[in-house]
Protein: Negative regulator of phenolic acid metabolism PadR
Organism: Pediococcus damnosus
Amino acid sequence: MAQKNRLKYVLLGLLKTKKQTGYDLAKSFDSDIGEFWNANHSQIYPLLKRMEEDKLIGHEDVTVGQKLQKKQYFITNKGQKIFYAWLKSPSDLDNTHDEFILKLFFIDDAQSPLLKPMIITQQKYHEEKLQQLNTQFKQKFSTQKKIDQNFGHSLVLRHAIDREQGYSNWLTEMLKLI
Amino acid sequence: MAQKNRLKYVLLGLLKTKKQTGYDLAKSFDSDIGEFWNANHSQIYPLLKRMEEDKLIGHEDVTVGQKLQKKQYFITNKGQKIFYAWLKSPSDLDNTHDEFILKLFFIDDAQSPLLKPMIITQQKYHEEKLQQLNTQFKQKFSTQKKIDQNFGHSLVLRHAIDREQGYSNWLTEMLKLI
DNA sequence: GCCTCCATGTAATCCGTTACATGATTAA
DNA sequence: TTAATCATGTAACGGATTACATGGAGGC
């Protein structure tokens, strides 16, 4: 055994809402869920095949135009079951792999000339991100109804915004310290 | 090519301070740096060997007791060079893999009975973590001198505390919402 | 006709985890 | 003497990234 294969549950979660092709699923990671999870099509297609062998999902072939065959995947009862079992199971937390933090750890000297430029670069990045997330929230959750119907998604996006804000504040504090 | 191999830089960073065995390096991840990076000895030993082939590090054999041979690794000039080059290079940020957040994303309904127990479990975890980090900070950085001599480390630990505090606050807010 | 996007796959490679395996030293 | 810790390795496997590869649909 090795690793977790949480991607399996992500795909089941996405298929829970509507049937989709592998291509559609892959696209979800470019927007939406991409904020906190990622996967490429080269990982998704083989996994879908294995999941179908395990009867967690099924597919129907759909013909588009003259020749193009696409596979509409859907979740099975068994798939639903293991998805909800996962939801209820305890969550373990990977440690974050933030390269900036890692570098910072190795700067022993408060007077190091490396510090300031590092912080400023990072700050720029996180401020852009923050703006982008705020825009996203306004677009996706413009009404209370939209929030109520995608409650978890809204909470998660709110969390991402909080996190970025916290990160920004911390960087600002650091600049004052040096 | 695949992936980043940042572990290489972590090991160089640790060896920059003092020469150490693979065993010592592996132990660093249990305390100290373990807060935001991890590695097992089974990954470390082969990597050290490769790094030595690349002349980033060297080692001297030390005999302990009658028979035990251990390898004291040290960083070379070349190793120092590529370490500082890495420090100065732009940092890219992996997206966090937080399983709780992932699950939350899939809870569409604000009235779902799953929500409350999930949040409470998570809250317990993060509050423990917060306490633990606070204790750690007090132990490691009891004087200003200690902070000044391990400035980056203190900033990073401060950040971890902020992050946990933010997470806790967010969870508390969520409980009010449901 | 051409470019963009849709759509599906495989191969190579590396990273990271778990498990297997062995033996020495040291302190209770 | 025995248990915990020090010390070093390999093997198997699964996850994730990058690159290679192919072809159809639809709009301009």
Remarks:
- The first helix of chain B runs from residue 7 to 17.
- Chain B touches chain A through 63 residues (CB under 8 Å).
